């Protein structure tokens, strides 16, 4: 097994050979994710049913079975959601483990609050919402919020609520419901966050909203007496709302400290991490600018193209831009063998056979993965290195080999020798960089890069990629491709437009 195959298997999982003879990714990690979901269903059941305040810490078998069925239904709903809207979870055991572990810790934290007779408004729902939103997406965070509230609602039916109503006039499920506005604010505030300190503001605002929501619910059920601090109930309500505000405020500090830790342990790439990696002063990018300046400037242009297109179709523009910065870092090992870095009339490939040239060109994928891992780049960035080529054909060298083979009947040309091993782009972001890389190289080679020629070039390249099946494994729609095409044409026209030549001036005119 080759070095590159081992690296790709480590990154993407096992492969099989398809009908076209090209290796394709098989999402076998889904089975591991399923096993994790089953395991956590049992753990959730035990955590929900456990009641240290009662003589019998576990309920009757019928009730226990009811909890198990209820939690299994919730887990099934989560699985269906992930399959349809967030496939990244089903194919990444470490990420589904992160989500399921957060839910388990949330349940245990509520059990601890019940055990010490604390305030249920200190439940870390705002914290879990922020972490999921920053690590994954706003949609997933809001969906998980309702799953979590349903799980916590089961706890109050396990014999705990009667202990808790001695402290508060409002049942705990309503308190959990009061968290919804604050958590949604936290989710919206933490999406595409660019500064860790902003999490502090998000936490405070969410705490204020939860404070108001708790008072609003108490006014509904208790009337104006809820505002009377002279009564026991009024003081209890104020304490509950006050702890909710403290919850949000503390959450901002805790989330700021937890995110770097979680990024390291679970290898989750947040926008904050991507911002750090996208700094052009990063050692690897500085090295690229010094040793392969042509590749470096090519990468910057591809990044501009990818960011613009991703922004317009609603993909992760920061991820696309950062991935574009690093997609060609493997060229650092032999920069002189790539056209953008050749400064001589006769290139290095003029002295090599087509198959040897193809071997050197394709090797930059393996070299790039090795460099990326050495510099500890996030896996989500490393995926851009092999996927930005997909299973493209090195057409120039393939044609050269075919021409040479006509004069030598014994010399059989294998198409696989001149085709990248893949995998094909598996996300919108890697697909956009895949297209941007090709259109930038094509536009650079145009003799007359005027708007009309650029538009024709971009359309031809996108149609060629589509017909070649390079976009089969990503979720770009035809509508997305039309938007991407327009974005590419606009950016490339600005970069490679033809300048109006000024007439030469005489020395006398300039004096």
Count the helices. How many? 22
Low-confidence sequence ranges? 1-26, 158-170, 500-511
In terms of DSSP E residues, the strand content is under 5%
Distance between the termini: 70 Å
Average pLDDT rating = 81
- SSE sequence, one letter per element: HEEHHHHHHHHHHHHHHHHHHHHH
Per DSSP E runs of 2 or more residues, the count of β-strands stands at 2
Portion of residues within helices: 55-70%
Overall morphology? elongated
Q: Major β-sheet, in short?
A: 2 strands, antiparallel
The class by helix and strand makeup works out as: mainly alpha
Q: What order do the strands of the largest sheet run in, or round the barrel if closed?
A: 1-2
Oligomer: single chain
Number of domains: 2
Radius of gyration of CA atoms, rounded to a whole number = 29 Å
Can you put this structure into words, describing what you see?
- With 511 residues, the chain is mainly α.
- It has two domains: 266 residues, no CATH class; 223 residues, Hypothetical protein af1432, CATH 1.10.3210.
- It is 67% helix and 1% strand.
- It contains 22 helices and two strands.
- Helix 20 packs antiparallel against helix 21.
Write the layout of secondary structure elements.
Elements: H1 3-12, E1 15-17, E2 23-25, H2 29-49, H3 61-85, H4 87-90, H5 93-115, H6 125-135, H7 138-164, H8 172-190, H9 198-222, H10 232-266, H11 271-277, H12 283-291, H13 293-313, H14 317-326, H15 354-374, H16 379-382, H17 384-387, H18 395-406, H19 428-444, H20 451-467, H21 478-495, H22 507-510
Antiparallel strand pairs: 1-2
